[in-house]
């Protein structure tokens, strides 16, 4: 049997279908990366942070 996730969403970045808890909530006034799971958002954040750090040194 395959469990059915009634509350699920497909990540627009990695294409995986994940539970809503895997998606960050939208903050007021913040440009939301709608449909991106936390993992994808985190990976791009880490990436940007690493790049900035590199550029400084
Ligand atoms: Zn994703």
Quickly describe the structure:
With 57 residues, the protein is of the alpha+beta class. It is built from one helix and two strands; from the N terminus they run E-E-H. The chain is elongated and about 55 Å long.
What does it look like?
With 57 residues, the protein is α+β, with helices and mostly antiparallel strands. Helices cover 33% and strands 11% of the residues. A two-stranded antiparallel sheet has the order 1-2. The longest helix is centred in the C-terminal third of the chain and has 19 residues, at 38-56. It binds zinc ion (ZN).
Blueprint of the fold:
Blueprint: E1 8-10, E2 17-19, H1 38-56
Bound molecules: zinc ion (ZN).
Zinc ion is lined by residues 11, 13-14, 16, 36-37, 39-40.
Average pLDDT, all residues: 78
Low-confidence stretches: none
Element order: H for helix, E for strand: EEH
Return the structural class.
Answer: alpha+beta
In whole angstroms, how far apart are the ends? Answer: 54 Å
Can you give the helix content as a percent range? Answer: 25-40%
Per DSSP, what share of the residues sits in E-state strands of 2 or more residues? 5-15%
Strand order of the largest sheet: 1-2
